[in-house]
């Protein structure tokens, strides 16, 4: 697993190649403020090979945050992360490996009959009850997450997962009350706290798309204070002295800045945005969709671009995400070695300071 000694040694190896605050605190270690995501791409051997090369290039040039999920590319993304970790000359202790569970994954490819596959693999086997499924494809029940966690350990070829996210729990709100979803999260957090105690998990979190950046009246809203409260209760229920809820993941970019602008969560001094609440609560924030899933490749709005360092729209977009308060790492999905190098070059420039970032929204 990622350790303090391993990640600090990694920073010492690469830190001089980047701008200030490129490496940021995560627990007792440090991680790069640029992470590599593995969501996109067809489930083919050719794409696997591209990802393995890109992940290796990232690890060996200063990026030590890898983000995946068991359902990404039908488990292939986890497996290619595992192969890259095994082949690189970078020590395992230097790398933060994050994955997710919640969406029922296929195995290597899309089956001819997805419904039959889900029924045979998950329902009839007793891993998931029909009542727990939403859309026929999503579940956050503790027994299911336990099963998925074990599969992820195997796919990744690691003994310990550094950060495990409950994946898009707001999906459950399509068929369940908000209170029922909080209750289920608490039960699953308790199981994850038990995995921490067992030693095969370091920290856990919640990865979302809508939940934390929309207004409280929105159908997909979940309260960060309530989620944090349920995590504290879970830690107590598992016999741990403190919660191991460490991070949230949500989209953040020039066009999707709701996590900074929407004050949807009750803080000590009143309503706060997700970013400010997380920072005040000691939660790390991992920004997804830093390039707007490719939309920002063509350009950042001129009024913002002129305030950002970087030699291209991509580099400026990366540095916008890295500049937001509370963001520990900004994810960029790529399977191109060339793009990995361009993205890392962006981090040779300093991010905006807090005052400069605030002025963007004045």
UniProtKB/TrEMBL annotation:
Residue stretches making up the NADP-dependent oxidoreductase domain: 34-213
Highest rank taxon of the organism: Archaea
CDD domains membership: AKR_unchar (cd19099)
InterPro entries cross-referenced by the UniProt entry: AKR2_Oxidoreductase, NAD(P)_OxRdtase_dom_sf, NADP_OxRdtase_dom
SUPFAM superfamilies: NAD(P)-linked oxidoreductase (SSF51430)
Descriptive protein name: Aldo/keto reductase
Organism annotation: Halalkalicoccus jeotgali (strain DSM 18796 / CECT 7217 / JCM 14584 / KCTC 4019 / B3)
């Amino acid at each position: 697993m990622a350790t303090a000694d391993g990640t600090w040694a990694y920073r010492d190896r690469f830190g001089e190649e980047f701008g200030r605050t490129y490496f940021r605190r995560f627990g007792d270690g440090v991680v790069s403020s640029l992470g590599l995501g593995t969501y996109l791409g067809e489930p083919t051997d050719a794409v696997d090979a591209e990802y393995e090369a890109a992940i290796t290039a990232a690890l060996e040039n200063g990026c030590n945050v890898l983000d995946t999920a068991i359902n990404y590319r039908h488990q292939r993304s986890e497996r290619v992360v595992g192969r890259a970790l095994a082949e690189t000359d970078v020590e395992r202790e230097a790398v933060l490996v994050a994955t997710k569970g919640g969406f029922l994954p296929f195995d290597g490819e899309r089956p001819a009959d997805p419904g039959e596959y889900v029924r045979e693999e998950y329902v009839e086997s007793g891993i998931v009850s029909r009542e727990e499924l939403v859309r026929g494809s999503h579940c956050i029940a503790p027994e299911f997450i336990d099963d998925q966690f074990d599969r992820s350990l195997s796919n990744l070829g690691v003994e310990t997962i550094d950060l495990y996210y409950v994946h898009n729990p707001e999906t459950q709100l399509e068929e369940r009350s908000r209170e029922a979803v909080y209750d289920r999260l608490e039960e699953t957090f308790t199981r994850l706290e038990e995995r921490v105690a067992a030693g095969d998990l370091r920290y856990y979190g919640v990865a979302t798309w809508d939940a934390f950046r929309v207004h409280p009246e929105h159908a997909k809203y979940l309260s960060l204070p309530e989620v944090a409260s349920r995590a504290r209760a879970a830690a107590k229920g598992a016999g741990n002295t403190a919660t191991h809820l460490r991070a949230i993941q949500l989209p953040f970019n020039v066009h999707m800045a709701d996590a900074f602008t929407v004050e949807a969560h009750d803080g000590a001094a009143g309503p706060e945005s997700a970013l400010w609440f997380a920072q005040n609560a000691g939660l790390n924030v991992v920004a997804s969709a830093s390039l707007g899933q490719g939309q920002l490749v063509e350009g950042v709005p001129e009024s913002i671009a002129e305030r950002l360092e970087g030699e291209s729209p991509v580099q400026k977009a990366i540095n916008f995400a890295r500049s937001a308060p509370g963001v520990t790492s900004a994810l960029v999905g790529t399977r191109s070695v060339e793009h990995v190098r361009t993205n890392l070059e962006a981090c040779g420039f300093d991010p905006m300071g807090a005052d400069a970032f605030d002025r963007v929204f004045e």
